[in-house]
Design a protein that fits this description.
The protein is built from seven helices and 14 strands. The protein is of the alpha+beta class.
Length: 262
């Protein structure tokens, strides 16, 4: 079973790119971020024509997440705990029954947090704590789960093309990295690093300053796996080629494969 995440940066603008990738990559489940659309604006007909059912948590002009699946899925959450404190559309979660047991897939769009020293950064760290709380709840079930999305955190200096230039960016702050480590230290596995712990690899290239051509990238999109899912992890990768296509998102898909029977 192939699980993927992709920040599409406006689903209406990238519909063609999304559908073409769905048809070629054929993930069983994919979580999308930054839809920048309400549910009625989502290109449901095109996505369904590619074989996927779509569940959307939309927001006008900002944020927005979706879960697309080739298999029946029960939506188990449309926001993190304490959702009353947060109106932004940033989380969706679904449960799929497989022959090897239930698999939960969560899709998240973590706040950027810039500029540091403002309420935006405080909100980012608080949101990450809410994500940790939800992760603890999922771990208590002792079942397979994957939390995928745009985490807006570069875990280490290796994951940013110029650490000095990003020293004052919320994506690389010690507090941001510590919050991500607290998640990982619960027993989660970073799917990409499980197979490639040392290489420089990115998932995001800004539209400005020729970042794509210069490979000035960041690794901020991650798939984190529970121990039960990590035991079945057989492959992981980054579809970098998508960034070079016409009208691309500034992010590319990240995927992993689990040895599961749907």
């Amino acid at each position: 079973m192939k699980i993927a995440t992709w920040n599409v940066n406006s689903v209406r603008r990238r519909t063609g790119n999304l559908v073409a990738w769905l048809e070629s990559a054929r993930p069983d489940v994919v979580v999308l971020q930054e839809l920048k659309a309400l549910e009625p604006q989502f290109p449901r007909l095109e996505v369904e024509a590619a074989g996927y059912k779509a569940e959307i948590v939309g927001q006008k002009g900002f944020n927005g997440v979706a879960l697309l699946s080739l298999h029946p899925v029960e939506i188990t959450a449309r926001a993190l705990p304490d959702a009353a404190a947060d109106e932004a559309a940033r989380y969706i979660e679904g449960r799929i029954q497989t022959k090897d047991g239930p698999l939960t897939v969560g899709g998240l769009y973590l706040p950027n947090g810039n500029p540091i020293g403002t309420d935006k950064f405080t909100y980012k760290i608080a949101w990450m704590e809410r994500l940790r709380q939800r992760t603890c709840e999922l771990l208590a079930r002792e079942e397979m789960f994957v939390l995928g999305g745009d985490y807006n955190v570069c875990p280490t200096e290796m994951d940013v093309y110029d650490p000095k230039a990003f020293a004052n960016d919320a994506l690389c702050q010690p507090l941001s990295r510590a919050a991500l480590r607290r998640l990982l230290n619960l027993g989660l596995t970073d799917a990409v690093r499980a197979f490639d712990p040392e290489s420089v690899c990115y998932t995001f290239w800004d539209y400005q300053a020729g970042a794509w051509a210069k490979n000035w990238g960041l690794r901020i999109d991650h798939l984190l796996l529970s121990p039960q899912a990590a035991d079945r992890l057989t492959a992981a990768g980054i579809d970098k080629v998508e960034r070079g296509k016409v009208e691309p998102s500034d992010h590319v898909p990240v995927w992993c494969e689990l040895e599961l029977a749907a």
